[in-house]
Every structure is written in structure tokens, then in C-alpha cells.
Design goal:
With about 250 residues, the protein is α/β, with parallel strands linked by helices. It contains 7 helices and 10 strands. Helix 3 crosses helix 4. The structure holds S-adenosylmethionine (SAM).
């Protein structure tokens, strides 16, 4: 029988890069693999938002930091801009250079590294500079899971369709409401007024919930029924779940 003591988890290898998902921001929601890699690697890269005083991802892994080199990066977020692409190439080149000298490098990412995450851009750049067998992804608990878990209600049953998308394209959100049973909107904080208006028109306010700064201690805000909520400015770290309906099992 495998026990916790004998459980093998991935240890960082010299010259390898790891895009590590660290979940919503609470250190006890890291996987064992994520904690082990952060604890044992040579360098930890952490993204930090331009207007933020600290890196949330770095705070979440603080209990696992000791001698590692810490690199805090402000990442470019402008859309489809050549300057942004060039900067990603330079960032990737820096990481590849570190790996070439034998360092094991971890980039920590809130949630999962493949869902709306800067790690994906870095991985794209690195794939052109390093052998792919030296690139690794460690999954993390994504915001859709964190948000759902705060209300203990099923996200999907039977043949329900689940859609994850950014809330920022309101027209696309409107279309998605007709094409799934459960809609999860990332980045809902910045367009909450428009979303509320759309849900009011569709009579869906009471089917919508949101979580802001989920699992981030006192910063957390939970709203389990938007029809009874007094609108207020929300943090960028806000995710909404709209339960539009259920789809019955198809016969045959
Ligand atoms: C750049 S995306 C990062 C997504 C992340 N990679 C994931 O898998 O959850 C930022 C968005 O993720 C969501 N998010 C991330 N952490 C969250 C948290 N702790 N509580 C609620 N939403 C969160 C919010 O919708 C936020 O606007």
C-alpha cells in the first residue's frame, strides 16, 4: 500500500523549467508536488500586477521559501502588441539562459498555469528555446473550482455543458448564456455593472453567484445570490458562476 511517507513527488531537475499552479492563494491549497518544487528549486519567478504592491502568488508560497533566488516580474498585458511579444521573448530568453547554466526554475501562478495565465506565454516562448522535455506544467486549483467550492453546489450534472470564459467580452457572454447550462466568468470584477444589467434582462440574477479573492483570508467576499446583493466595486480577483439550467440525460 502507498502511504504519504513513501509517496513519490516530482523533485526539480537541473536545467528544467516548471510552470507551477498554486491554487487560489491559500498555502494549504497547494499540491504536494507544487510545494516540493517551490521548496527545492534554485529560482522562483513570481508575476506581479503593475499596480500591485506585492505578488499574491509569492505570498502564497512564502512558507516554502528559504534559500531560493526570488525574481518578481511585472508582465506585459497589452493585447497583440509587438512590444508585448518582444518582451515575452526577452523574458523567455532570460529563463532559458538560467536553465542553460543548470538552474532549476519555477514560475508560480495563481490557480492553474494553463487557464488565463501568464505562464502560458512564457511556455510558448520557452518551447522555441529549450527541449520540450525540460518544460513541465504542474496543475493548480483554478478559480472556477475555488468559486464553486465556496457554495457546495454542483457545477455540472449528467450532460450539462460547462463554459469557462472571460467576462470582458459582453457580447460573447450573452451568446454563451444560450449555449451552456453553467457559465463561469473570469475577470468579472471590472465589468460587474454591465454583467448585472445583462443578468437582470435575462432574469438570471438569482441564478448567479460570485467570489472575490476566494480563499484569501479576510479579503474574501462571497455573494450567493446576486438578486439580493447591493452592487459595490469589486477586486479584479472576482469570478462569477451562472447556473442557467440543467440538461437531462439523453436516452439511447
Ligand atoms: C489572470 S486570471 C488567472 C486565472 C488563474 N490562472 C486560475 O486558473 O484561476 C485572473 C482571474 O482569475 C480569477 N481568480 C483568480 N484567483 C481568484 C480567487 N482567489 N478568487 C476568485 N477569483 C479568482 C478571477 O476571475 C481573476 O480575474
Amino acid at each position: 500500500m502507498t502511504t504519504m511517507a513513501t509517496l513519490k513527488t516530482m523533485a526539480p531537475e537541473a536545467g528544467h523549467f516548471y510552470a507551477v499552479g498554486i491554487g487560489p492563494g491559500s498555502p494549504d491549497l497547494l499540491t504536494l508536488r507544487a510545494a516540493r518544487l517551490v521548496e527545492q528549486c534554485d529560482a522562483v519567478i513570481s508575476p506581479q500586477a503593475k499596480n500591485s504592491a506585492k505578488s499574491l502568488a509569492l505570498e502564497a508560497v512564502r512558507p516554502f521559501l528559504d534559500q531560493q533566488e526570488i525574481i518578481v516580474n511585472n508582465y506585459p498585458m497589452e493585447r497583440n502588441d509587438q512590444k508585448t511579444r518582444d518582451r515575452w521573448q526577452r523574458l523567455a530568453a532570460n529563463v532559458a539562459k538560467r536553465c542553460a547554466t543548470g538552474q532549476s526554475v519555477v514560475q508560480v501562478t495563481l490557480g492553474d498555469p494553463l487557464i488565463f495565465a501568464t505562464s502560458s506565454y512564457l511556455l510558448q516562448g520557452l518551447a522555441e528555446l529549450m527541449p520540450v522535455d525540460k518544460l513541465h506544467v504542474v496543475p493548480g486549483i483554478s478559480a472556477f473550482q475555488t468559486t464553486a467550492s465556496r457554495f457546495t453546489e454542483a457545477l455540472t450534472l449528467q450532460e450539462d455543458r460547462l463554459t469557462l470564459m472571460s467576462a470582458t467580452d459582453l457580447q460573447a457572454v450573452e451568446q454563451a448564456l444560450d449555449q451552456c447550462e453553467t457559465l463561469v466568468l473570469y475577470k468579472a470584477g471590472g465589468c460587474i455593472e454591465q454583467l448585472m444589467e445583462l443578468l437582470r434582462q435575462r432574469n438570471l440574477l438569482s441564478s448567479a453567484k460570485l467570489v472575490s479573492c476566494g480563499e484569501q483570508g479576510d479579503h474574501e467576499l462571497l455573494v450567493d445570490d446576486l438578486s439580493t446583493w447591493q452592487i459595490e466595486p469589486l477586486n479584479y480577483m472576482t469570478t462569477m458562476i451562472i447556473k442557467i439550467g440543467n440538461r437531462a440525460w439523453q436516452e439511447g
